[in-house]
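C-alpha cells for chain A. Residues wanted.
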C-alpha cells in the first residue's frame, strides 16, 4: 500500500487549514480535471493571489516556478513553454487572476478568489 487509508491532522494544522481555506469553483475543477498541472496551478493561484497586498506585486523567477511545478521536466525552457500553455487554460477558468509572465518569470498581483466564500467556520452554525 502506497498511501495510508486515514490521514490524521494535528489540531493546529486543521485550524490553520480552516482559517485560510479558499473555496474553489467546481466548474473550474471539472474543466481542468484532465490536467494535473492545471489543477495545481489553479489551486495555487486561488490561495495565493488574494493574500498579496494591493499595489505590491510579487515576482517569482522561472527557476522558482520550476522548482515548485517542474517535476518531470528536464529543462526549464521546456517547462516554461508547457507552464505558459497551462496558465492560459487556467486563466480561462480564473479570468480575474492577476498573473503576468515575462522572460524573467511571473508577476503575481492581488486578485479576488475565484468565487466568493461560502464556507461556514468549523463550530459555527448558520443563521
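Reply:
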Amino acid at each position: 500500500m502506497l498511501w495510508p487509508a486515514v490521514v490524521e491532522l494535528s489540531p493546529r494544522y486543521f485550524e490553520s487549514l480552516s482559517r485560510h481555506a479558499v473555496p474553489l469553483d467546481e466548474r473550474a475543477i471539472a474543466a481542468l480535471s484532465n490536467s494535473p498541472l492545471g489543477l495545481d496551478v489553479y489551486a495555487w493561484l486561488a490561495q495565493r493571489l488574494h493574500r498579496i497586498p494591493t499595489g505590491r506585486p510579487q515576482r517569482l523567477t522561472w527557476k522558482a516556478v520550476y522548482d515548485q511545478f517542474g517535476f518531470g521536466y528536464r529543462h526549464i525552457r521546456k517547462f516554461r513553454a508547457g507552464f505558459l500553455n497551462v496558465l492560459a487554460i487556467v486563466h480561462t477558468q480564473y479570468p480575474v487572476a492577476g498573473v503576468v509572465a515575462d522572460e524573467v518569470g511571473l508577476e503575481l498581483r492581488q486578485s479576488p478568489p475565484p468565487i466568493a466564500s461560502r464556507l461556514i467556520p468549523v463550530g459555527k452554525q448558520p443563521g
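The CA atoms of residues 61 and 104 lie 6 Å apart. DSSP finds five helices and three strands in the chain.
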